[in-house]
Amino acid sequence: MTDATAPKGDDTRADAPARNQWWDVWDQFKTHKGAMFGAAFFIIVILAVYLGPYFWTIDPTYIDIRARNSGPTLAHPFGTDQLGRDMLARMMAGGQTSISVGLTAMALALILGTLVGVLAGYFKRIDGLLMRTTDLFLALPLLPLLLVMVMLFRQPLSASFGPETGIFILIVVAIGITSWMPTARIVRGDVLALKEREFVLAARSIGTRPGKMILRHILPNVMSPIMVSATLGIATAIITESALSFLGLGFPPDFPTWGRLLFDATDFMQQHPERVMWPGLAISLTVLSVNYMGDGLRDALDPRIRGL
Amino acid sequence: MLDGPKTETKLVEVSDLKMHFPIHTGLFRRHTGDVKAVDGVSFDIFEGETLGLVGESGCGKSTCGRAVLRLYDITDGSINIDGAEIGDTPQSQLRGKRPTMQMVFQDPQASLNPRMTVQAIIQEPLDEHTNLSKDEKREKVLALMDQVGLNRKFAGRYPHAFSGGQRQRIGIARALALNPKFIVCDEPIAALDVSIQAQVVNLLEDLQQEFGLTYLFISHDLSMVRHIANRVAVMYLGKIVELAPREALYDAPLHPYTKALLSAVPEPDPDLHAAMERTILTGDVPSPANPPKGCNFCTRCPAVMDICKQEDPEYREVLPGQFVACHHYNGITDPADVRAASEAQ
């Protein structure tokens, strides 16, 4: 205790304004090598798929039937597909869709899952109702549900938002509302445990309102499982989108996504294995980089690991 | 505090406080019983005094402290703090009363949010109940840290970086932030080692003198309670068995349980220690879900009588300021007779 009551003469930080804690988070994030690699790779992928088309100006839907099934050449560095469409251009166009579907669907599932989990864990009265709803969703067979959703809503959504945006919304919503349940369960469990901790009781003795209590005391402490769910969720969303496209329920057949490219290429796997490799590699590496980023972020958000 | 109660104004009046936790069993979670953690407790605390609440583990001390602050929805009884009845106020309306009553918790590690800086932790009550600007809050937090003996430099750190005693100081600073009148100290020293215990207790005493605070000091450490409390209440199985001014309780305890409890306090002098007459209680504390018929202490009392197993003793004032719940003092009003009855056990 002697250091706690030390004279204030060596006080260096007292009068300086409190440092924004996000700087501390960033400092810790920087020390996580995997996270930095992951973040760098993810930024490169995003730049490549969004800015790439400005430099590689071949239309991904342009059919050059005489150059079909070509291997990597100078004109087509990633080769062409069975209709002679340029694979590099298709990879970039597909990446835009896949990454935006992955991120948006993940965000939706996460918000939904966290909301349900926190509410169910914190408010005992609605716990039963919310968790039975979660069980109900878990028990629903995923693919038939998706089929029905696509069948029912594809036309109206296409009509009101245009074919591409309409189907984008449909797929994001479909993936989002069928993948929030594990997050909700994990979050509820953590909230139930947290609610009994003494610091929550202390906050109650101060008179903190439930809303503030959740934002200030509960959410920051369930950050770790949420981050893990988030990073895994991106991977699942990209893969589910691929599966939907494969079944002909996702985007239209000529509309490239990484998943569709992968499934289109499976027919030619023996003759042209590189055509499976590129989209497969893109999906795996993107997912891996996001996972590493999530790992680093989770560590950076925990003051105990941050060592302050 | 070494002097008696400073005023005769009652700050806290608790009467017949009951806190029962329901037990649900079976397939349909039927309500099959209650854990009677606090079962009809009454006491008053005068302004500026410290009431010690002692008892063995699991006797309902902490529950009693939390129930007084209405951290639980109490089963029955009335709680009057600073002239306002809060026993049956709904939680949503209690918020305005919270600044007058605060709490210091037992486990300083668990009672601080690990994701918040010291600044944010001490500032939380200010955020909730005042409209101060950011700079004013910061100034107030730093002033509080000075008052509890924490270096200002540590405001930006997180709880895990502190020792147990320092964490408890953070908890005390948080409790002081809103200038409360009444603080429940729920075993604030139980998790600390002895040298730090003394520091924290002295800090609590200094703060009491400075701000005129009123404490309900919950502890199982009898010698520490003797040091800090003006009056002491002894709890056994959810009930107060004896409440008396400190000197009276330690010098001439009336209730057999108090006698047994006091005789268990270690004596530092080895010669005296060997010569001490101890009352050794046998058996265990009965379950609060199923207390014995009659007096709660009748299963272990060395001076048990037939009536003890039939009737619950009345809790009443047998000597001025000294309350006891024991059949041995039935119908006795004369102080000399009370002493005689106490000796006779």
Word description of this protein:
- The complex is a heterodimer of chains A (308) and B (345).
- The two termini of chain A are 18 Å apart.
- Helix content of chain A is 71%, strand content 0%.
- The radius of gyration of chain A is 24 Å and the shape is globular.
- In chain A, helix 3 (87-122) packs antiparallel against helix 4 (124-139) and helix 3 (87-122) packs parallel to helix 7.
- Chain A is mostly helical and 308 residues long.
- Chain A has helices at 21-31, 33-55, 87-122, 124-139, 142-161, 163-177, 181-195, 198-206, 210-218, 223-246, 258-266, 274-301, 303-306.
- Chain A has 13 helices and no strands.
- With 345 residues, chain B is of the alpha/beta class.
- Chain B has helices at 61-68, 91-94, 118-129, 134-147, 164-176, 194-211, 222-228, 246-251, 256-263, 270-275, 335-344, and strands spanning 10-25, 30-46, 50-54, 76-81, 84-85, 101-104, 182-186, 214-218, 231-236, 239-245, 315-319, 322-325.
- In chain B, helix 6 (194-211) links the parallel strand 7 and strand 8 (214-218).
- The two termini of chain B are 32 Å apart.
- The model of chain B is unreliable at 1-5 (pLDDT under 50).
- Chains A and B meet through helix 8, helix 9 and helix 13 of A and strand 6, helix 3 and helix 5 of B.
Report the sheet with the most strands of chain B, covering strand number, pairing sense and barrel closure.
Answer: 8 strands, mixed
Q: Distance between termini of chain A?
A: 18 Å
Structural class of chain B: alpha/beta
Radius of gyration of chain A: 24 Å
Spatial ordering of strands, largest sheet of chain B = 6-7-8-3-9-10-12-11
- Tell me what portion of residues of chain A adopts beta-strand conformation: under 5%
Helical region count of chain B? 11
Extract low-pLDDT stretches of chain A. 1-16
What is the strand content of chain B? 15-25%
Low-confidence segments of chain B, given as residue ranges, are 1-5
Strand tally of chain A, please?
0
Order of helices and strands of chain A: HHHHHHHHHHHHH
**Gross morphology of chain B:** globular
Largest sheet of chain A: none
Helix share, percent of chain A: over 70%
Structural class by helix and strand composition of chain A: mainly alpha
Give the helix proportion of chain B (percent range): 25-40%
User: Number of helical runs of chain A?
Assistant: 13
Based on CA atoms alone, the radius of gyration of chain B comes out at 21 Å
